Amino acid sequence: MEGRLWTVLGTIGGHEQFWLISSHLALTIFIVFVLARLATKKLQIVPSGTQNVMEAYIQGVISIGVDSMGEKNARRFMPLIAALGLLIFVSNMMGVIPGFESATGNINFTLSLALVVFIYYNYLGFKENGAKKYLGHMMGPVPALAWLMFPIEIISHFSRVISLSFRLFGSVKGDDMFLMVLLMLVPWIAPLPGFFLLTAFGFLQTFIFMILTYVYIAGSVMMAEEDH
Predict the structure, then answer these.
(1) Cα–Cα–Cα angle for 224, 226, 227, nearest 5°?
(2) Residue 71, CA atoms < 13 Å, CB-side half-sphere
(3) Are 125 and 224 contacting, i.e. CB atoms less than 8 angstroms apart?
(4) How confident is the model at residue 17 (pLDDT cuts 50, 70, 90)?
(5) What do you get for the CA distance between the two ends of the chain, in Å?
(6) Rounded to whole angstroms, how far apart are CA atoms 54 and 31?
(7) Would residue 5 count as lying in a domain?
(8) Alpha-carbon Rg for the chain in angstroms
(9) Does residue 74 fall inside a structural domain?
(10) Where in the sequence is the domain holding 115, given as residue range(s)?
(11) Which pLDDT does position 181 carry in this prediction?
(12) Could you give the CA distance from residue 38 to residue 54 in angstroms, rounded to a whole number?
């Protein structure tokens, strides 16, 4: 437990890193399932309560993707983006609550999310365009420069994994460390502005991850429109 704040789940299974991350991830997934269940348990034409909140969230997710891929494709890929957004947001907010930690504060989890996005959008690229067109698109418009453009594009695509994972991990981990120091120095009323700031950062990092996922998917499935 050295170097860590007390956690609720840590009192159950200890404060080893594996237990803390896996237990908080399981709790995050459970909360997401509960929210989904509450929103769909009794669907109404005029929504209220959790259904109203979740419908507003779904519309917000779709509106994020409209500019990058149009409403039809935004709705098509909305389930993935919405699920990622809920998972990341709940995890981020959990780290703001004293006694809990964010699963997104662990690089293994954020890297897994980034790999899911990377594998999925490349799978869509090959499926929608075929291997020849998808790989050929990475070689640039000038055949003479293909030997230069192709490695650059490959590096660019792999760097997206690093960008997605480390941006989310670095922000959340930094927030957790800031909160730890803040609580140790001034454990009462003074940290409240810090909690509001960390909540805002949690919203922001969720939004960034979602919109980048939309952009990456759009780039892989809309080559015909882009070429046109």
Answers:
(1) 65
(2) 2
(3) no
(4) confident
(5) 58
(6) 14
(7) no
(8) 20
(9) yes
(10) 10-227
(11) 74
(12) 10
Give the C-alpha separation, 219 to 120, whole Å.
Answer: 12
Place of tokens 């490695």: 151
Tally of domains in the chain: 1
The amino acid occupying position 127 is: K
Q: 78-101 pLDDT, tens per residue?
A: 999 999 999 999 999 988 887 888
Separation between Cα atoms, residue 176 and residue 140, nearest integer Å: 42
pLDDT digits (tens, 9 = 90+) for 179-222: 777 767 766 666 677 778 888 888 999 999 999 999 999 988 87
Residue 1: inside a domain, yes or no? no
Q: How far apart are CA 179 and CA 96, in angstroms?
A: 8
pLDDT of residue 1: 40
* Domain contains 4: no
DSSP letter for 141, please: S
Cα–Cα distance list, 184 to 3, 99, 191 (Å): 11, 13, 10
Q: What is the pTM of this model?
A: 0.87
DSSP string, 156-189: HHHHHHHHHHHHHHHHHHHHHHHHHHHHHH--SS
> What does the alpha-carbon distance between residue 17 and residue 43 come to, in Å, rounded to a whole number?
40
Q: What does the alpha-carbon distance between residue 71 and residue 101 come to, in Å, rounded to a whole number?
A: 36
- Measure the CA–CA gap between 6 and 20, rounded to whole angstroms: 11
